[in-house]
Amino acid sequence: MTILNEAFDHDARKSHELLIVDSDIADADILLSGLARPMPVVALTVGIDPVAQIVQALSQHFGVRKLHILAHGEAGALRLAGTCVDTAYLDAHSEALATVKFALARPAQISLWACSVGEGVAGKAFVSALSAHTGADVFAAEGPVGTPDIGGTWSIGTPSPFMQAAEAAYPHTLPTFDFQSGVSGISSSVVTQTVDGVQVTFTLSNAATWTYASGAAFDGFALALQPFGANNRTDSVTVSFDIPVTITSFDWDDFLDIATSDIVFTPSTGTAITISAASANGGTTVTPSDWTDISSFTVTSAADFQAIIDTIVFIPSNRAAEIGGDTTGSVGEDSTDTIGGALTISDADGNGDESFNADTITGSYGELTIDANGDWVYDLDETLSGVQALSGSDTLQDTLAVTSADGTSQNIVITIDGANDAATFGGNLTGSLGEDTDSVGGTATVADVDASEGTFAADTISGTYGDLTIATNGSWTYDLDETDATVQGLLSGDTLQDTITVASDDGTTQDIVITINGANDGATFGGDLTGSLNEDTDTLVGTATVSDVDAGQGNFGADTVTGTYGDLTIDANGDWIYDLDETDATVQGLASSDTLQDTLTVQSVDGTTQDIVITIDGANDAATFGGNLTGSLSEDTDSVGGTATVADVDAGQGTFDADTISGTYGDLVIAANGDWVYDLDEADSAVQGLTAGDTLQDTLTVASDDGTAQDIIVTISGVDDAPSFGGDLTGAINEDGTTTTGTATVSDADTGQDSFSAETIGGANGTLEIAANGDWTYTVDNSDSAVQGLAAGDTLADTITVESADGTTQDIVVTITGVNDVPTSSGGAVSGREDQRVQFSESDFNFEDVDTSDTLDTIEIVDLPSRGTLRLSGEAVEVGDVIAASDISDLDYRPASNFNGTVSFDYRVSDGTASSGSEATMTIDIASVNDAPRNLRLDDTTVSEVVPGAVVGILSASDPDSRSLRYSVSDDRFMVSDDDQLMLKPGAALDYETEPTVTLTVTVSDSLGASSSEEFDITVIDVWEQTGGADDDVINGHNEDDFIESGSGDDRVSAGDGRDTIDGGVGNDDIDGGGDDDLLRGGQGHDLVNSGSGNDLVWAGRGDDGDDTVNGDEGADTLGGGVGDDLIDGGKGDDVIYGREGEDTLFGGEGNDLIYNGEGSDSVNGGNGNDTLWGSAGDHDTLTGGDGEDTFAFTAISGDDVVADFDATEDILDLRFVEADFGGIGDVQAAATETSQNGADGLLIDLGGNSVFLVGLTLDDLSDATITL
Fold first, then answer.
1. Three-class secondary structure of residue 670 per DSSP
2. Mutual angle of helices 94-103 and 50-60, in 10-degree steps
3. What is the pLDDT of residues 1107-1134, one digit of tens each?
4. Least CB-packed of 390, 696, 917, 1162 within 10 Å?
């Protein structure tokens, strides 16, 4: 239980309010911020018995007359502190509810601000049971409670504790479980009820309000309502109905006989009725004669009046029947011509009209026949042109109205689905063209009875020998594939047909037939159509080919053809022989490079001619050579040259064939006159591989003009060569890598010199180790600052020189690429002042990075300050948010209101590539600023007259800086005591008859002088009292219900029998309640209070400074201590005891007692019986269960307490509500330590924020103990 708003302490004689709020209510703060009247607010704690919490709240707020409960509900139940409180629960907790009954002032009421609690039979039973157990009038809703805009109401028959603005702002109804419907009490200007399905609304003018008259409710068609309060009058009443009705009579009464003018009843239609003011008093039955089918009537008078309307007898006008069942159907144009169905009907009038008018209805496309049961059949008229014109995808709807017996109309909608009708064709459906003609065209026609389907589907259709393209209007073109072999194979007079299928718009198909006429095609030739032979060769053979697309014409005409230099004979297959005439002088006169051509013409069988061309080549005579036919040079010499000579008997052939000849090791270029140059290929490995003294020979063949060959030999002499390098002469490694490897190669023509000098070479940024075979390993020096200073993507080149076996050097270059180093932050610290923003800058986050070029890119928020909020551009920052460095100037910390001190949050920094692995902490130091006190309140604004030094109430205020407060008052008659009580000064008293209200200003100041003020109106109460005065009085009550105020002396008061109320006042009083159920308050001073017999409610006093003694005696008593160090003994019976403030000594006595020890270091002994002892606020409480099976319960607000006699075999340790999260007995054992306190051994259990010491127990005893978790 948590006190949310400590507003007022309440005296038993005064009417005050208390609001209990269940913790499950969403957005309760919206309602609590708009309380209609000052009142304390208490929030229930889940898991603790709700009635016990309510009893505890009542013990701290004395004299509550109106108990409000804000919670979830359902029909016949509340949901409180996680418990379903229903009628069975109430019956099981009757004793605790009896305590509530005595704690409430009289008369008392309980208002349940929860949905549907009073709904239906279960709801009414619950309200009745709660009223019986508590003696209070109970108000409960029969529907949703909450904002009217979403179906709720705040009208349950009693004033709401919330202001209208708060009610309107509340965004919910109070959710319920298993809602039902019902009727609740009301207090409103507008009342709506439903009778037999007719909604009736009663509306008052002048902001007057309705409430139920005693026992009045709907009965048949009757409702009784009356306004309350003598000044609650109206000048009009409007009664309206949601459907027309005919009113035959109703009862009327001018409630308090205050009407001074005639009463006029005016219907919406019909004749107005006037009743004189005199006859309206005492009750009148109004009997209209023509109020037929009216929607409302209004009652007015020239003067205000109060009234009762009751027993309205009316007849609802006919309400339309509700028709369902088969209201649609479908048929097909040429398929299904009938469809049937059945309608259903219900009629709220209940007059036998739940049937249909049997009928045949003619629609647009057919007829529908329906019988009285609602069975119907629809017949489609398929002869209608509109039906037949439907295409396959078209539909029509036919809507036919039927009626029920009461005249209610209902449409039956029939959907008619179209069917496709076949199209007919005409026009050009054939065409013809020659095999070598590109295309032919025409126009086809189509007709279709289906609307909009008299066109073709535009398309291009591939046939066997071509494609046909048709347009929607039927125009078509056929394109012949002239390359088709079958087409080209047609002879003149032959034909082919290509049949191509087209379609109309509805898919009907039609063939278009194309005839292709053949024509003669020329032959084509191939094969051996040329040939050649030497002047000294007799014959030459070959085979020619002929191809003709015309069938049977692919051969030659066999023949012998005489040419210029010989004859050619050819057969039908194309095989031919050419016979050269070698005696021909022209032939024999050919030189070796001379030629002659002989052209001979042959024919295919269809007469197509073709030339065969024979080339005759001349023969050569051998030549002779001399001159420079050899040469020599070294391997590194570019060239050597010379001049060769040639002689040939053939005229004009005594020269060389100018040429470039590639040898093995170089090229030789020779001119026609025999001059030659040899160019050595110095890159040749065989040439470069020569050592000094070695030789190679390159033989190159040249030719004379007639082709006679001659070798020229070149000798190559070797010299020593330098090696060459290759392979992996570069490498790469990342900044934080270890090694990179490669293999370099060396090539040296000199034998035994193609290897490396094995060694380890130190570079600028690492070392390289190379083996003789060229394998090398480079190890980067990661301790090198130049290496570590590389940013991501930056590079360094380390050049290391190696040597081959002959001493030739070569560089190997290793590139080192930087990687991003994780940035760090040493954390930051900023400062500010209370209630002022702290603005951050980028430098506050102390970004550090070994990559010198990296800068802060973002920060990531890891957690949030515990007090206050981080905001970025005004929006709250959440854990995990990433904030760009450029936005840090928009980041600020807003401390919680009035907070000062140090908070922190953790963050990570990022350079845009990597984030810091560890978290840094930003520390924010908020310096304090003195704030003025606030929330100045006075918990009571009433004071009894004629009581000198009377206490008005307790002043309270809050100081954000937790400074000490002091109060002052503007009226010299008043003072503020050291314990903050606003009271009259000693000797000062007020008189109701001369000053019923006193207005005064109270100022509260803190220790540094900051202050605030409030004005309070103090109501002076006119009381009847029996006062003992200032002396030590002896007052004896009568044997009836007494009210006794003993005065300021040390009084002896004996109430006697009867239900008595006694206030001991100031002084050390001796009070005896006597018989029956009494309400006793000791007041100030060290009092002795004996409750006597009966179930008594006893308070030593709240705000009192005495050390009191309270004895419960017999009965189930509720006993509460005051501020002092009290002694309370429950006596006999099952008692409830509250220690409250001070170091109290509490005895349960006989019976099964429930004990709350309260604040202070208390000593508690349960006594006999099965007791429950709660470890409440305050350290060092000592709890003793006494005899019986006792329960020791502790919560998160308990102190560090001691249990003196825990018996592990029969007592119970209840740890359900402590801060520690105990999952099982093992967790409890882990939190327990065997130790000693004040000389006693025992077991100390850590409960999270507090502890309990069990005297005499060991760890082993816990295994036998009963522990509730």
1. strand
2. 20
3. 556 666 665 566 666 666 565 665 666 6
4. 917
Task: Report how far residue 442's alpha carbon sits from residue 470's, in angstroms, rounded to the nearest whole number.
Answer: 9
Same fold? 724-818, 934-1021: yes
Please tell me whether residue 901 adopts helix, strand or coil conformation. Answer: strand
Q: Report residue 987: phi and psi, to 5°.
A: 90, -15
Tokens 């606030």 identify what position? 934
Q: Report in angstroms the alpha-carbon separations of 78 from 26, 175, 186, 1043, 1105.
A: 16, 11, 20, 36, 39
Q: What is the pLDDT of residue 844?
A: 93
| pTM over 0.90, yes/no | no
Domain 934-1021, CATH homologous superfamily name and number: Cadherins (2.60.40.60)
Q: Are 853 and 946 in contact (CB under 8 A)?
A: no
Instruction: Look up the CATH number of domain 524-617.
Output: 2.60.40
pLDDT band per the 50, 70, 90 thresholds, residue 1104: very low
Burial 18-47, CB ≥16 within 10 A → b, else e: bbbbbebbeebebbbebbeeebbbbbbbee
Q: Round to whole Å and give the CA distance between 143 and 152.
A: 7
Q: What are the residues facing 1110 on neighbouring strands?
A: 1089, 1128
- Both tokens of 692, joined, read 């000094």
Please report, for residues 110, 158, 239, 255, 310, the alpha-carbon distance to residue 215 in angstroms, rounded to integers and kept in the order given: 19, 17, 21, 16, 12
Confidence of residue 179 (pLDDT cuts 50, 70, 90): very low
Q: What angle do CA 618, 620, 621 make, to 5 degrees?
A: 145
Q: Which two tokens stand for residue 365?
A: 């496309």
- If you search the block for the tokens 């049971």, which residue do you land on? 129
Helices 120-134 and 94-103 cross at an angle (nearest 10°) of 60
Tokens 């052209």 label which residue? 599
- CA-to-CA separations, 448 to 454, 471, 568, 648, 1061, in angstroms, rounded: 5, 17, 73, 98, 106
Q: Encoding tokens for residue 1127? A: 């002694």
Judge if the upstream peptide bond of residue 107 is cis by omega within 30 degrees of 0: yes
Scan for tokens 């279709």, then name that residue.
Answer: 448
Report residue 184's pLDDT band, with 50, 70 and 90 as the boundaries.
Answer: very low
Token pair in block for residue 1095: 């179930």
Q: What torsion, rounded to 10 degrees, do the Cα atoms 869, 873, 877, 881 define?
A: -150
As a whole number of angstroms, the distance between CA 625 and CA 1032 comes to 170
pLDDT band at residue 1023, thresholds of 50, 70 and 90?
low
Structure-model confidence comparison of residues 695 and 453, the more confident one: 695
H or E stretch including 1216? Answer: strand 1212-1217
Instruction: Name which residue leads in pLDDT, 567 or 964.
Output: 567
- Sign, CA dihedral 669-671-674-677, equals negative
Q: Which CATH number fits domain 424-518: 2.60.40, 3.30.460, 1.10.1040, 3.40.50?
A: 2.60.40
For 8, other C-beta atoms within 10 Å of its C-beta total 27
Q: Is the dihedral of CA 1103, 1109, 1115, 1116 positive or negative?
A: positive
- Look at residue 1105 and tell me whether its pLDDT is greater than 90: no
CATH architecture of the domain with residue range 724-818: Sandwich (2.60)
